[in-house]
């Protein structure tokens, strides 16, 4: 039966996250973007909120269950504060979520507890590749079975890998017999070479690196799901729905900022917001955001229900969110006029970050 | 707890109504469109029997039962949350998928009855609503718009004067764009709700609605409009010339108070009716998207969901965009209706659903014609008809622009005087 009311527990989590997102993430966002670095204590404080830990069962040292619905509610609020900070804080989830979704029992028991037991550490993942025709279903990085029969050899080049420098471990995605598979790769594996820190249009505060794999050898037991391997669809669904929800958060931040500005700024004797030309922009921004938020919620709900259409809907949600975020953040800059273009206001940063959702394949998961 | 499953009782109805849409609407859809003002009696009689056999007077929720404020009713609501508006929205979506014009010919209480149910006394409800339970299908209609007063309903000039000698109201004025007015007044023993002022000096505070029954002298249908789409549905002009109705036919208070409560009451019905129009838009949009996908499949084109956007073909992008718009329009609609069922204040959400659904059905039908090339523009398929039908949802029950104003006012916290 339809309901659009989060549970009390979810609401409490959302409220706690909202405070962190505004008091901490948002407060630090501009400086972090300019300096290209997030204060480590900021990430640690977010980590201590325990969102990820609460989405992992007790068997693997967590204290809850994964819920994609709770996830989208949480990351929307986080991204409302700041997208770079959100992605940083959530990075270990890029390692644990695929293991939880696709890993064998042994892999879950071995690899998840070290991540969530302690303070935030750089557990991360490498999916994207630096090519205009990048497609997660047709990766150029390959994993070949080694002649000795016990290991896979990884060769290729990855890009947009968060916290690659000094990472504890990675999930590296590669084409194995032509099918995309995730492999657990220790940070100190031989043949792994972290490249330059990447300079991008946005996400300046998030350290992203290229990563070269030259004959990196990992045991066959490190293939997600063991010998049988795994289905990529649930992992992409977890990523797409997370990104869609974050796009909603960024959009909502831009909208609220624009509203506040438009209600304050005078023009021809009235507030800017009292002009229909501006008010209509705002009405459309609000409507589009609500539309995409509901789509992301439904996709997350389908994931939790284990429905077959979940991956498709998560993809649709992200598809819609990409356009909505661009439209909304662009209009927020427009509503502020020339002031929107000045870096004293955050809207230009949200517009730069917002443009990335079409690109950020697999950069977040719930 | 967030939940996107359709309530069980609605699921059961869905299957039944789908059968009606497939078997009774689609086969005659083209014929009804080409013969404007022909009345689909087979469909009407079937729906009349079906609605009656379910014990209702209309597809709309039983407001009487759901509005009870006592503690017992509260407990009942908690156990079985009301779903009447969600059910109505679901049915309207399916019927509009079948044929948006024929859906508007569904007999039983529609907008007019909603007004009676919302503002009428128990006696009035009994007097006016019992007729829907008879042997023959009966229609009602809402007469609000005037030649000079469309979205700006406060500009209404029709008057109602109290004749103290006979204790009657004398109505004078001209109404246009009355949906189903012909069927309500001339094809059945129905009624229309006429909006008129009892005090032209009082502005909105003087606005009242009156029930005018079929056969009342002085109330005449003067014109049946020829329209772009929804041609199976009649849209008429009505002239009221010294039209006398009993004093008891006024809905709400007969005296003018300082407040605009009466007017606001009329506006409040929009909170339920706007998402219903949105549901109609979604129905037409879904028919269109399904047809496009069917034609693409026939031609060996599959949509590769999951591909990064820069790798999609143009057709794939268009179809994916359509699916995004279609699904989110439905979610906005069902959320607004869910709020109406749960008595949550929803004017913003109601208008959002209509803004969005009215927009996307127009975009989707326009784009679909382009995508199907010569096929799309031809009257061989129903697509060109849906393109014409779609536009009405962006116009009636408040144009897209009026609804944008409503959304903006709520988002900005402005009154009407602050954002005109």
Which architecture of the largest domain in chain A would the CATH scheme give at its second level? Up-down Bundle
Ends distance of chain A: 24 Å
Tell me the structural class of chain B.
alpha+beta
What's the SSE pattern of chain B? HHHHHHHEEEHEEEEEHHHHHH
The major sheet of chain B is characterized as: 4 strands, mixed
**Briefly, what CATH class of the largest domain in chain B?**
Mainly Alpha
Strands of chain B, count: 8
Largest interface: A-B, 52 and 48 residues
Biggest sheet overview of chain A:
4 strands, antiparallel
Structural class of chain A: alpha+beta
Chain oligomer state: heterodimer
Count of folded domains of chain B: 3
* CATH level-1 class of the largest domain in chain A: Mainly Alpha
Rg value of chain A: 21 Å
How would you explain this protein's 3D organization?
The complex is a heterodimer of chains A (366) and B (420). Chain A is an alpha+beta fold and 366 residues long. Chain A folds into three domains: 8-117, Acyl-CoA dehydrogenase/oxidase, N-terminal domain (Butyryl-Coa Dehydrogenase, subunit A, domain 1); 123-228, Butyryl-CoA Dehydrogenase, subunit A, domain 2, CATH 2.40.110; 233-358, Butyryl-CoA Dehydrogenase, subunit A, domain 3 (Up-down Bundle), CATH 1.20.140. Chain A has helices spanning 8-35, 40-48, 68-81, 83-90, 93-102, 105-117, 233-264, 276-305, 310-336, 347-354; strands at residues 123-126, 142-145, 151-162, 169-176, 179-186, 192-197, 208-219, 266-267, 270-271. In chain B, the strands form two sheets. In chain B, strands 1-4-5-8 form a four-stranded mixed beta sheet. In chain B, strands 2-3-7-6 form a four-stranded antiparallel beta sheet. Chain B is built from 14 helices and eight strands. Chain B has helices at residues 8-34, 41-53, 63-66, 71-79, 84-103, 111-119, 122-129, 181-185, 261-298, 314-341, 347-371, 373-377, 383-390, 400-412; strands at 140-143, 159-163, 168-179, 191-197, 207-213, 219-224, 235-246, 250-251. Chain B has three domains: 8-109, Butyryl-Coa Dehydrogenase, subunit A, domain 1 (Orthogonal Bundle); 133-251, Butyryl-CoA Dehydrogenase, subunit A, domain 2 (Beta Barrel); 261-412, Butyryl-CoA Dehydrogenase, subunit A, domain 3.
């Amino acid at each position: 039966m339809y309901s659009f009311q989060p549970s009390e527990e979810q609401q409490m989590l959302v409220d706690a996250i909202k405070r962190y997102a505004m008091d901490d993430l948002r407060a630090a966002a501009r400086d972090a973007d300019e300096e290209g670095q997030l204060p480590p204590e900021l990430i640690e404080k977010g980590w201590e909120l325990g969102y990820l830990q609460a989405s992992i069962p007790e068997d693997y040292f967590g204290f809850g269950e994964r819920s994609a619905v709770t996830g989208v509610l949480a990351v929307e609020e986080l991204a409302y504060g700041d997208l770079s900070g959100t992605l940083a804080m959530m990075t270990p989830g890029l390692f644990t979520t695929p293991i939880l979704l696709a890993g064998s029992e042994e892999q879950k028991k071995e690899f998840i507890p070290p991540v969530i037991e302690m303070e935030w550490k750089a557990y991360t993942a490498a999916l994207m590749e630096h090519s205009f025709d990048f497609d997660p279903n047709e990766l150029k990085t390959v994993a070949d079975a080694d002649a000795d029969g016990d290991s896979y050899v990884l060769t290729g080049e990855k890009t947009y890998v968060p916290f690659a420098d000094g990472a504890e471990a990675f999930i590296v995605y590669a084409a194995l017999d032509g099918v995309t598979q995730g492999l657990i790769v220790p940070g100190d594996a031989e043949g792994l070479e972290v490249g330059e820190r990447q300079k991008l249009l946005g996400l300046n505060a998030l350290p992203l690196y290229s990563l070269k794999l030259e004959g990196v050898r990992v045991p066959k037991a490190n293939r997600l799901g063991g010998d049988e391997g795994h289905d990529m669809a649930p992992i992409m669904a977890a990523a797409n729905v997370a990104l869609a929800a974050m796009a909603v958060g960024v959009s909502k931040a831009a909208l609220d900022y624009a509203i506040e500005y438009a209600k304050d700024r005078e023009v021809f004797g009235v507030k800017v917001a009292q002009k229909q030309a501006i008010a209509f922009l705002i009405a459309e921004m609000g409507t589009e955001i609500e539309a995409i938020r509901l789509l992301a919620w439904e996709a997350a709900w389908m994931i939790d229900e284990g429905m077959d259409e979940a991956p498709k809907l998560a993809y649709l949600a992200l598809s819609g969110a990409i356009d909505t975020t661009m439209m909304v953040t662009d209009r927020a800059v427009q509503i502020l006029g020339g002031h929107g273009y000045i870096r004293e206001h955050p809207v230009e940063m949200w517009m730069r970050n917002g443009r990335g959702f079409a690109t950020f394949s697999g950069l977040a998961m719930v | 707890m967030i939940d996107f499953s359709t309530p069980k009782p609605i699921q059961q109805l869905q299957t039944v109504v789908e059968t009606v849409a497939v078997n009774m609407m689609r086969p005659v859809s083209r014929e009804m469109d080409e013969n404007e003002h022909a009345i689909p009696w087979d469909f009407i009689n079937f729906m009349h029997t079906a609605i009656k056999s379910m014990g209702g007077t209309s597809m709309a929720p039983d407001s009487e039962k759901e509005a009870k404020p006592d503690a017992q009713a509260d407990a009942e609501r908690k156990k079985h949350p009301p779903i009447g508006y969600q059910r109505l929205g679901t049915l309207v979506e399916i019927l509009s998928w079948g044929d948006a014009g024929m859906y508007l010919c569904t007999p039983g209480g529609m907008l007019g009855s909603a007004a009676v149910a919302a503002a009428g006394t128990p006696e009035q409800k009994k007097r006016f609503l019992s007729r829907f339970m008879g042997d023959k299908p009966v229609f009602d209609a809402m007469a609000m718009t005037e030649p000079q007063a469309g979205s700006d309903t406060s500009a209404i000039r029709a008057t109602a004067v109290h004749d103290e000698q006979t204790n009657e109201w004398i109505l004078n004025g001209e109404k246009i764009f009355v949906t189903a007015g012909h069927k309500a007044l001339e094809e059945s023993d129905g009624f229309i709700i006429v909006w008129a002022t009892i005090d032209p000096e009082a502005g909105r505070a003087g606005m009242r609605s009156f029930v005018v029954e079929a056969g009342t002298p002085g109330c005449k249908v003067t014109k049946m409009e020829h329209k772009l789409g929804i041609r199976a549905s009649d849209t008429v002009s009505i002239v009221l010339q010294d039209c006398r109705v009993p004093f008891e036919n006024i809905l709400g208070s007969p005296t003018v108070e300082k407040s605009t409560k009466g007017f606001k009451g009329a506006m409040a019905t929009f909170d339920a009716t706007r998402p219903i129009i949105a549901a109609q838009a979604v129905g037409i949009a879904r028919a269109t998207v399904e047809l496009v996908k069917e034609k693409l499949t026939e031609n060996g084109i599959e949509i590769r969901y999951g591909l990064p956007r820069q790798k999609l073909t143009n057709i794939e992008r268009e179809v994916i965009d359509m699916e995004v718009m279609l699904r989110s329009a439905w979610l906005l609609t069902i959320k607004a209706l869910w709020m109406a069922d749960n008595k949550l204040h929803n004017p913003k959400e109601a208008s959002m659903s209509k803004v969005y659904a009215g927009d996307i059905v127009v975009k989707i039908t326009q784009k679909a014609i382009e995508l199907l090339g010569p096929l799309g523009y031809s009257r061989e398929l129903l697509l060109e008809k849906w393109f014409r039908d779609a536009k009405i949802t962006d116009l009636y029950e408040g144009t897209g622009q009026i609804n944008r104003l409503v959304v903006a006012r709520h988002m900005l916290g402005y009154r009407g005087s602050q954002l005109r």
